[in-house]
Amino acid sequence: MRKILAVLSIAGLALMACGGGGGASSPEDAVNGMFAAMKSGDIDAMAQYMPEDERSEITDMSDEEKEMVEGMLVMMAAIEYEIKGSEIDGDVAVVTIEISFMGETEEEEVELMLENGSWVVTSGGMF
User: CATH: 3.10.450, 3.40.50, 1.10.10, 3.90.220. Which one for 2-121?
Assistant: First the structure.
């Protein structure tokens, strides 16, 4: 389990460095979209599932910074996840996922918020 948390923490730092905005029609769609983008190493796609106020952080990144973050995300391709459930309370939600990586599995909660009619993963909501 510590391996999973270590990888997610590294990815979380990378995501905090890049920001984004856009969202999805449901909390589950946002989580699926975020994981798909992370697993493919697509920073620009990840950005659409993050809060709007962080968008400039990705557009302001240098090519070198983007390459560094993309390099960190390469390890995300091996992570498997399954959505176990979700709870919505007004404009916030929590999606429970089961994550498997390097032979270890654990359950985590992803925090989201409704922003301009779309669900986005909050800063640190995945890690």
Answer: 3.10.450
